[in-house]
């Protein structure tokens, strides 16, 4: 004879799973993305030196007890943080944008953006 799982146990498992989960959705992809001034007509040009390291930047808005405790999440700020995470970078290539969120009902939550891409550098002038 098969034993049935009590409804309360199943409901408790679903609640626990929802409390421990977050959501990440891909917003879009860009070939090149920058918030810095880049002279695209420059003689020197630009280059990507991946070296296996991608630049990552995030900006989030946090909620406690349903009230926001930080400012609104900003995509430009997340992009700036990604570019600034690699010294000398002026932009990103092969960029992927994500929308992230986490919600623990009535206790804590956050929502924001994550930007990942290969750093782009200005080529050094020939000597």
Keywords:
alpha+beta; 2 helices; six-stranded antiparallel sheet
Word description of this protein:
There is one protein chain. This protein is an alpha+beta fold and 127 residues long. It has one domain (22-122). It has helices at residues 7-19, 75-84, and strands spanning 22-33, 46-48, 55-64, 67-68, 89-104, 108-122. The longest helix is centred in the first third of the chain and has 13 residues, at 7-19. The model has no long low-confidence stretch (mean pLDDT 84).
Kindly summarize this structure in a few lines.
Helix content is 18%, strand content 46%. The protein has 127 residues and is an alpha+beta fold.
- Please give the radius of gyration in angstroms: 21 Å
Count of DSSP H/I helices: 2
Low-confidence runs: none
**Secondary-structure element series:** HEEEEHEE
Shape label: elongated
Strand content: over 45%
Give a quick account of the main beta sheet: strands, pairing sense, barrel closure. Answer: 6 strands, antiparallel
Oligomer: single chain
- What's the end-to-end separation, in Å? 84 Å
Query: Into which percent range does the helicity of residues fall?
Result: 10-25%
Please give the number of β-strands.
Answer: 6
Question: How many domain modules?
Answer: 1
Mean pLDDT value: 84
Helix/strand structural class: alpha+beta
